[in-house]
Design goal:
InterPro entries: KFase/CYL (IPR007325), KFase_sf (IPR037175). By secondary structure, the protein is of the alpha/beta class. Helix content is 23%, strand content 18%. The chain contains 10 helices and 17 strands.
């Protein structure tokens, strides 16, 4: 793990908006976790989740209430075709009509229904795997990107390795509600800072203290706005999100994973006046080794947490073990 002598500033005003390469490189070098769990590691910060973490998380359960944190998977989703990302296409291959008309060839009156779905793995609520983003042609743990992901898929850090890993204590940081109590929604383009995250946790109380191995969920309120106004530019357009300056917070808190209710996790437009694209991804995934979730539905959970005054819960969010995939759709559930 390499650390620079002086940690990068956590004030967005200090970002050199003309030089994304330097700003990204500074944080990549400062917060790089390469080798921390050995040269063969495939889990990155998910290693912070230990058996005792899950046992402690299970003890949080009080009501037995289960809340799904997934958006819908259907043709009415947010995708607009960028880089061939489309909404799911669900097709029936056998139906009740076929059964009624006896065209299925089944004996003694048996009938049934079957279906198939075609979709990009990152079209709705999902995890970004460690093979999803590279930094100057280098993947997580310092491997050459071309040795990791080929036309055969992610040969090293495929999402299947995390299939039994992502179960831990979850913590909701409802930044939208804390910073904008009247609306509960941050405006598009708002860059969430480490100070915002810490202030939200402090305002929410003791159950919001972020500890090693936690899965942090950051609610901006943007998804709530789409429920009221329609998708608009939700997929890839302007959005509130984490500032590049949160990289140090993501590193030092030793969280296992983080997810937001937005398409891209980080603030959009990104914090530069010259061409740039998802700079925090470039630091967090290939350098910190952080698993990132996007397009989570945090509305019911936020209401439940606000009503109870408790912001931690047992969280189960395993990816589908799609061999060699660099991301996965999920139906994460919070158990209160």
């Amino acid at each position: 793990m390499s650390l620079t002598a002086v940690s990068p500033s956590e004030d967005p005003a200090d970002i050199d908006r003309s030089d994304p390469t330097a700003e990204i490189s500074m944080r990549a070098q400062a917060f790089r976790n390469w080798g921390r769990w050995g040269e063969d590691d495939v889990l990155g910060t998910l290693n912070f989740i230990e058996p005792q973490s899950r046992i402690a998380a299970a003890s949080i359960i009080r009501e037995g209430r289960v809340i799904s944190l997934a958006q819908s998977f259907d043709t009415n989703g947010p995708q607009r075709g960028w880089r061939r990302r489309t909404n799911p296409v669900h097709t029936m291959t056998d139906t009740g009509v076929d059964a009624e008309r006896g065209t299925q060839g089944m004996p003694h009156g048996l009938g049934g229904a079957d279906d198939v779905i075609a979709m990009p793995l990152q079209c709705s609520t999902q995890w970004d795997g460690l093979g999803h983003i590279f930094d100057h042609g280098v993947a997580w743990n310092g491997r050459r990107a071309g040795d990791v992901v080929t036309s055969e898929g992610d040969l090293v850090t495929g999402i299947e390795h995390a299939a039994a890993a992502i179960v831990s204590r979850g913590v909701l940081l409802d930044v939208g509600r804390h910073l904008r109590p009247e609306s509960g929604e941050l405006e598009d383009g708002y860059a969430i800072t480490p100070a915002d995250l810490e202030a939200t946790a402090a305002a929410q109380g003791a159950t919001s203290v972020v500890t090693r191995g936690d899965i942090v969920l950051v609610r901006t309120g943007q998804y709530a706005r789409t429920l009221r106004e329609g998708w608009g530019e939700y997929a890839g357009g302007p959005a509130p999100g984490l500032s590049l300056t949160t990289a140090g917070w993501l590193h030092r808190t030793e969280i296992a994973a983080i997810a937001t209710d937005t398409w891209g996790f980080e603030v959009r437009p990104n914090e530069f006046d010259v061409p740039s694209f998802q700079p925090l991804h470039q630091v967090a995934i290939p350098n910190i080794g952080l698993t990132i979730g996007e397009m989570w539905n945090l509305e019911e959970l936020s209401q439940a947490c606000a009503a109870s005054g408790r912001y931690d819960f047992f969280l189960s969010a395993p990816p589908l073990p799609v061999t060699g995939a660099v991301g996965s759709p999920i139906n994460p559930v919070a158990i209160l």
